[in-house]
Amino acid sequence: MAEGVLGLGTGASSLNGELIEKLKEAERSSAVTPIENNIEKITGEDGESAKIAEIIAKANELLETIKPFDLFISGGENAFDNKTANVTGTSAVFDAVDAGSISEGTTSVNISQLAQRDVHQSTTFSDPAANVSSGSGDMITLDQSGRPVYQSNITVSADDIVDSSGGDITIDGTDFTVTTDMTYSQLATLINNNENFNAKITSFGRLSITNSDEKSTLTISDTLTTDIGLSRGEKYSTKDITYEKLASNINSNSNYRASIENVSGDSNRLVLKSIDSGLENKITISQTGVDLGFSNTVAAQNLEATVDGISYNVASNILIVDGGLKITAVETNEVGEYSTISVNKDTTTIEPLLQKFVTSYNELVALVDEELYSSESNIEDKSTLRDMMSSIKDKIFASYGTNDDLNIFNFGFEINKSGVLTLDSEKFNSATETDLQSLKSLFIGVAEDRGLGTVLKDYVDSLDSFDGLLSAYETNINSRKDALEEEKEKAIETLDNKYALLAQQFAAYGTIINQFESQFAGLKLMIEQSVASGQ
Question: Domain extents for the chain?
């Protein structure tokens, strides 16, 4: 009996640890595991979150299939506006700026002359890094007939005084008074205060003035003692400027393209081109104190074309006609020859597009029904899904048109007892041939009586919007998951604290037991000695 009591201390620590873990695990099963199971129902592979994400994806697939039947479709071309085009000839390339607005019928184009850019080349020089000239007033002036710009012959800075004696600058009959202390920056501001003119100091130090429309010519005079020399053209100094730098300076103007071209061996030319084609972009080059020997290698010219008997003489090789037909001229026609485009309405894409819609709708119904009627579903708020599907079905099966007398069942759609939607291709295609306008009223509608596609697109699009039904459901799921995670952390913390305290209590009990065992061990030794001595 004494040995049994003494044996308690030697096995106390191991017994305490095992016992505590068993007790803790048993309590964890009732306090933490149910919370973890609820989290798994949300976040697991087939959890609520994954299923709602799958339903949202399927709803978005349905949205994509109905977009071609939206009255307000991006780009303006719905399924009923599709057109086919047959093209003959090679002088023009046809494209659609707005396919929906292009009229049906044939357009004939004859190109007699293509628009061209103006191109000039200098005489040859050997070193692009050599200076063009050294004279103080040396410069090149560039002018385009359709874009009059007037610049000072002298270079100035914004803070320079215009004329210490004062005077007037007159632009198209309007006087601008220059005071004795006015700077060029202040003069530019004074001119800009008049809505008819624009003025600035260029990066190359020229006072530059244009009409506000940038197309009209100006008459400029002054009574200044300073010889500003405002005259037509954009001026580029050549003094102590290399050919490369001159080309770079000209390129800073978006209307010109300048380059140094190596034409053979060590022979180079400065080549100058207008960015845009046409006579209005023809370049006139004048030179002061320098002569680079420019010659006109390609003369600017307009496009000359006839479209359905209407003559065009324009700067660009691109024409926009018929409200949206883009014609790009690429080569000339012989006399009597034409390029043509024949545009016809294309109804062949409508039925395949609606078959995609039917398939997507049936897939969404099957996916949602699986969650609504399965006992293993992890969906908590099934009423939201019921409301969503009820709204979608109400919109699909409703009546449309001005008199609310059109619905999908008039045009080959059927639904069986299981709720599966089908489309009879033969009946539908017959309707496209005999009653296309009613079909368009049913699916597209007008602003006052929106059709099925327009109404359904708006609703399905709203489901995944900021305040949408499915978006709100996702937000609710995330909130519940976060709450469960927090509850789990608190339960684990409570459990850990409880059994940490219990471990401390067991350790104290073990110490007491060991003390008792030590005392019993001493008593046992005294008894054994007493027995051995025969006392």
Answer: 2-31+481-533, 53-77+348-464, 83-115+302-345, 119-298
